[in-house]
Automatic annotation (TrEMBL):
Keyword Iron assigned: no
Entries under InterPro entries matching the protein: 6-PGluconate_DH-like_C_sf (IPR008927), 6PGD_dom2 (IPR013328), Mannitol_DH (IPR000669), Mannitol_DH/Oxidoreductase (IPR050988), Mannitol_DH_C (IPR013118), Mannitol_DH_N (IPR013131), NAD(P)-bd_dom_sf (IPR036291)
Keyword Mitochondrion on entry: no
EC number(s) from the headed UniProt entry: 1.1.1.67
Name of this chain's protein: Mannitol 2-dehydrogenase
Domain Mannitol dehydrogenase N-terminal: start-end pairs: 33-281
PANTHER family: MANNITOL DEHYDROGENASE 2-RELATED (PTHR43362:SF1), MANNITOL DEHYDROGENASE DSF1-RELATED (PTHR43362)
């Protein structure tokens, strides 16, 4: 391998080291079929990769991706990717070693504009048959406490009043569909790829609810003609920083936005596409009408499991998820909560029991090659706890099952939001609602009920006596004796309700 890294461009693919897999297709072989909103690391390691693998087989070459974003921060990603012809270095990190390939399924990235004019025009183009999204769990304008659409959100109010120049992705989708309806070019599929139970159903509700605020007839047309498939997505993809850029450079590739990922992917999709789709099942995706079972298993064991680890790890200064799993107290905490309080509320899927899936996740989380930070996993707890942890807690309470560990998970989050670690170091703000959470966390030190009074997060759970009592018990213990004392006290308990 040369000591000089090759700048990543379509024209330089032939100059890359031979061990780096490159596209067997040219950009001129491709035409667009998908607009993807929210071009982060996960999309490039997951959905874009599945499409790339199909293109490597000579298929789906009329389904290339046009990237898009609706936030000012998306413009920086656009600049980086356009400078390298929208190519991405995907670096697989397994305990056995490292490998790299270049993904070329994206062929353009639209300007990021306040009125979303370019995005609306591209989605209105008849060539666009799927609009997919990764806009994070908190990006669907729902009330975290109830899951219902929030018509009072400032961005929703704006889009309802100005439907031709919307500021949200959903407003842009509606504006594009209005043009297609008027032109007679037909609908497209709206495909959420975010970690939400019923992500397609939630997307449908957001789109239809917003459309009804400005044009009920258009909303009825969308409801009749468009499809919103549910899906489950899974691959651990750390954030990119200087270490990841240096890793790509060490492989001989100068990439301003490489992506590292684990050696595992899963994509389970409801086969509901009104304008066609690529044959993703040919490269490992699963089409099924049992998406909810798969996503419940994944969201409860993996995503809720992440929250079990992250706040304890942040408080104890464990930098990565693998570090958390290697910590004897945090690792034991994770295994006990999974075994006694999460797995019993998960149904099996074809070929996989919840117990086996939990063992698989334990192995994946413990992979030391994946530098997935506790800070990344703990981000936006105000969306992740209601989405991942609290549904399990509600089921356990309803069943009279053990909840002590899940109550401790919530207490650890409340303690983390106070903004200091056990060693006194500062925890920087790590949530869009940080100011509110921080104030509640400080007040909860003396009165734990203040934390549970956040109805946007907990809804009526504060009125559940068993939850309120055990949450208060654990939070007081954490403040009085520390995180380790709480973890060890829980480890010593039996699983009785």
């Amino acid at each position: 391998m040369s000591n000089t890294a090759v700048p990543l461009r379509r024209a330089t693919l032939g100059d890359l080291p031979r061990e780096v897999a490159t596209p067997r297709y040219a950009a001129t072989d491709l035409s667009p079929g998908i607009v993807h909103i929210g071009v982060g690391n996960f999309h490039r390691a997951h959905q874009a990769w599945y499409l790339h693998r199909l293109m490597q087989q000579g298929a789906a070459r009329d389904w290339a991706i046009i990237g898009a974003g609706v936030r000012p921060g998306d413009a920086a990603m656009r600049e980086r990717l356009l400078a390298q012809d929208c190519l991405t270095t995907l670096i697989e990190l397994s305990p056995e070693g490292t490998s790299a390939e270049i993904c070329g399924s994206m062929i353009g990235f639209l300007p990021v504009e306040p009125d979303n004019a370019a995005l609306i025009a591209q989605m209105a183009d008849p060539a666009t048959r799927i609009v997919s999204l990764t806009v994070t769990e908190g990006g669907y304008f729902t009330d975290p406490g109830t899951g219902a659409f929030d018509p009072a959100h400032a961005d929703i109010v704006f889009d309802a009043a100005r439907p031709d120049t919307p500021r949200t992705a959903f407003g842009a989708i509606i504006a594009a569909l209005a043009r297609r309806r008027a032109a007679g070019t037909g609908p497209f599929t709206v495909q959420s790829c975010d970690n939400l139970r019923g992500n397609g159903d939630i997307t449908r509700d957001t789109v239809l609810s917003l459309a009804r605020l400005s044009d009920p007839d258009l909303a009825a047309w969308i409801e009749t003609h468009c499809t919103f498939p549910n899906s489950m997505v899974d691959c651990i993809v750390p954030a990119t920083g200087p270490a990841e850029i240096a890793r790509a450079r060490a492989l001989g590739i100068e990439d301003a936005a490489p992506v590292t990922h684990e050696n595992f992917r899963q994509w389970v999709i409801e086969d509901a596409f009104c304008a066609g789709r690529p044959d993703w099942d040919r490269v490992g995706a699963t089409f099924t009408d049992r998406v909810h079972d798969y996503e419940s298993m994944k969201i409860r064991i993996l995503n809720a499991g992440h929250q079990v680890l992250a706040n304890a790890g942040e408080l104890l200064g464990r930098e990565t998820i693998a570090d958390c799993m290697a910590d004897p107290d945090i690792g034991a905490f994770w295994r006990k909560v999974q075994r006694e309080e999460i797995v019993p509320h998960v149904a099996a899927v074809p070929g996989m029991t919840p117990q086996d899936y939990a063992a698989l996740i334990e192995t994946r989380f413990a992979n030391p090659a994946i530098r997935d930070t506790t800070r990344r996993v703990a981000f936006d707890g105000a969306s992740r706890h209601p989405g991942f942890v609290l549904p399990v807690l509600r089921d356990a309470l309803a069943a009279g099952a053990p909840v002590d560990g899940l109550c401790l998970v919530e207490a650890l989050w409340a303690r983390m939001c106070a903004g200091t670690r056990e060693d006194g170091s500062e925890i920087a703000p790590n949530d869009p609602a940080w100011d509110t959470l921080h104030a509640a966390a400080l007040a909860a030190r003396q009165s734990p009920a203040v934390w549970l009074a956040q109805r946007g997060i907990y809804g009526d759970l504060a009125q559940e006596p068993r939850f309120a009592e055990r949450f208060s018990h654990w939070l007081r213990l954490i403040w009085d004796e520390g995180t380790l004392a709480a973890l060890r006290a829980y480890a010593a308990t039996d699983p009785a309700p």
